[in-house]
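Hi V.,

You were right to ask for the full record rather than a summary. Here it is.
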Amino acid sequence: MNFLENIYENLRRASGQPVLREARAEGNISVTGAELLALTAEARTALRAAGLVRGDRCAIVAPNSIRWVALDLALMAEGIVTVPLYARQAPAELAAMLRDAQPALICVGDAALSEALACEWPQAPRRILFDEIFAAAAPTTPAPASVAATPTANLVALAPDDVVTIIYTSGTSGEAKGVQLNRRNLDHMLTCTGARLDLLMGRSRRADQVFHYLPFCFAGSWILLLSCLSRSSVLTLSTDLTRLVTDMPAAAPDYFLNVPTLLERMRTGIEENLKKRGGMIRSIYDGAKKELFARAVGSGTRAGRFHLALARFLIFPAVRKRLGPNLRALICGSAPLALDTQRFFEMLGIPVLQVYGLTETTAICTMDDPRHVELGTVGPAVPGVEMKIGANHEILVRGPNIFPGYWNRPEETAKVLREGWFHSGDQGEQGPAGNWRIIGRIKNLIILNSGHNIPPEPIEEELQLAIPGAAQVVLVGNRRGYLCAIIAGPIERGVAETEVERINRSLPHYKQIRALHVESAAFTIESGLLTANGKLKRDAIATQFRAEIEAMYQKKVEAAAG
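Predicted structure:
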């Protein structure tokens, strides 16, 4: 049974049980397995009426919803290649990816976005709104008996090499590329994720409760969706990011997928609330934190042990309850997580399980084993996947999770698939226990004219955490004599300078930051300075801030001359 057949069969088994929810201010909307199958059947009818046939490509441009999931399942059931895109991206960027993919149909979440796409690409193929696809369907529509009884009987037979989806990469330093993933990739990866989730959930016989806010057009987010549909789960979808604080604990999740930015914001929010309470609570918390962080370097005190014991009894249970009473773990991917942030949640009694991978590796290469978490690493390679270090500490990967190639880009494919290995572009190292640590991206490496090679990410991460209000930190200095920094967000320059000086004292001379530029407005996806999943577009930043960068270096030259 392949991954899609397994999902349909699992939905049949859960015909009377809830499998998906949308968290809404006016009340949650839920569907059972049978109701989701009915919605999927409705979408399949609409796709056939639109003239789509096996092998066509169909784009989905809409936020997460129950209907998004039903449409995605319908496309795969018909053998149509899905092209999911991020609805919040600029219409011009979406149009560029659509022109590259050349879909036969574009399914759009709302009329305003449909019109914006038409303005950017007048020659676009037919666009159809979700309301048209599901015109006669509602979440409460019962599934036809034939659908519920034999859900896999009329699925298109997918061969292992059949492409299932084309997911566009972030494009941090250039045009986004379409990553093709096939049935073999998904069969293997969903087996791996299911096994890891089994370890996390142990012998629990109830359905997994999962909360989800990351867009399904990101590979890791989509893999989590398919993993939940493949097992006994209830997946609650966030429909309003401003309501995360209330929707998340209300969903009472066992686990959910995160990006480091949100976990760092959660940590900051928790610490600020504890500081506001002041008095004994703050004193106990400060002592407990100091003790736990001291233990990480092999020290500690009797007073610290006392504070930690009190915090575990008086403070941490209440914090955990606010995040969700059933929370077993937080899962984190997309970018390296700051060690102090992982240690903070560990202190609260909530392990953070890290995942490493790229879209080209079906989102995952490594996953933390819940039984043996090594802080600061991203876990061991998943079963069936080989990893090794190549030139310049580059991580090379091979296995059934490796994509077959980029859509319509044979030259780009040949650059990264060489001699049976995928060249990730990431730098890493493997520890004695088999766990991997990610150092940075090769293309982000700053090479000073002194010959020193500096991965910017660790310094940027430390500065961003240290400076209150800092949304992004970008180091510059390639082919220059020293490093400078651009710091974006509502921050005080004096505070930034103080933190830079403090951090400089712990760095070798060639890694020290000699000048900085403060930009009051944080970088955003809409400004074109962040990718769809929030990563820095370094080339775009360097271009937009060319004058400011030159000014930083000119000032230092003038100061030296004076």
